[in-house]
Amino acid sequence: MILSVSIRRETIAEVLIIGGGLVGSAVAFGIAERGVRVIVLDEGDHAFRAARGNAGLVWYQGKGQGMRRYQEWSLEATRAWPEFAEKLKELTGIDVSYFKPGGLTFCINEAEFESRRDLIDKIRREAAPDGYDCKMLDRTAVQELLPEMKLGDAVVGASYSVHDGHVNPLALLRALHAGVRGFGGQYYPGHSVFDIRQRANQFVVQTVEGSFAAPKLVIAAGNGTERLARMVGRHIPVRPEKGEILVTERIRPCLPLPCNRIRQTAEGSFLLGASKEDTGFDVQTNTRVIQNISDRARKVFPVLGNFRIIRSWAALRVNTPDKMPIYEASETSPQVFAIALHSGVTLASLHAGKLVSWIMDGREPAGFQNFRSRRFNV
Amino acid sequence: MFKRLNHINEPTVTITVEDRPVVVPESDSVAAAMLAAGIVTARITPVSSVHRGPYCMMGTCFECLVEIDGVPNQQACQTQVRDGMNIIVQRGLRDIES
After folding, report:
1. Scanning every residue of chain B, which has its alpha carbon at the shortest distance from the alpha carbon of A270?
2. What is the interface pTM, i.e. ipTM, of the complex?
């Protein structure tokens, strides 16, 4: 009898990261920068990639109502962004087109304006004194900020924060990957993970392309995080939320501020978006939703009706039950971390920095207990 | 540069490309007509100001953008010629109104 023995090489790393999107790649970037041997395992092109489908806002206003720590974390992230963008340029040569001119969230009727004002007031009351920088602007004040874009009659006003900005999210992802490789880290696409086991002081991760082992494991796999975290006994509830985006032809720059549903990219295209649908793992675009996005955008800026839409797509947001981030760490060795959140673009500046000392040195940022997933087990 | 494969006796139309009258078969796309007339620049890119011409000829690459009868960013390969059509090179980004 002949035994067929398959011997598969096991690749060893100091830190294994499952997920090559914006969260996993930012963390990998910061860890690799320290000279630590890090391996990023990513899926292939069939993956649901929020990192490649998002609108690219680096956003603060409106976030964190009900959890002050998240509001502060978002502020800290937007403050770290200018230096982060420069660092990416310096280390990778890639300009991620980051701009921080402040941002607007439009209200196109009185009820929307009132409810936005209530939300902003609530966050301000929860924030540290002078800790929340966002205000409501009336229509006239908004129009003054946008001299070339005539507001539609429906616009009542907008909320405005100086901390908001935008970035090219694809350039960001490319820069992070280039940085990881430049620092000697490794990125493996097409490595879907189907099993994780603990063996002595290591986690052994099985992928379709071979196995990997490391004493530290970071699970940052977007909507796949729940399934993967279950393999190491952690409950990380996430749920996909579909968003659709329309892209126009390129136009001379005329919208100086990014807005929460409308932004003009550095190359001139307008991105229109911000639909929300609960349709599971479905990324089909829907004509009715596209119509709604375009109707609303034209209510804000009627001139958008002149521009041709050249592309549209749908992608899946990563939502936790309360829409706030989950940062989870085990106390034991080998150590596993799980990260699940919506704002991988905004928070990238911290994920590549402050979060690295949490993962590598055990220095948990203040107030991080707020982000543990046990808040859902009450 | 380009030669037509056949000479079917097809009615022709006259279009204007950058102020130059061109007589072409009426079934041509704007891109085919321009290439046959030896005009290879459709647009000058907004990012790096280089000249680009029709590439995929099937509506995918957006390299052949031209301004047709005052409407900017038209895909030359997806537009059939019409008598009297006025075509100019798309120079950089279109403006907000047009």
Report:
1. B96
2. 0.84
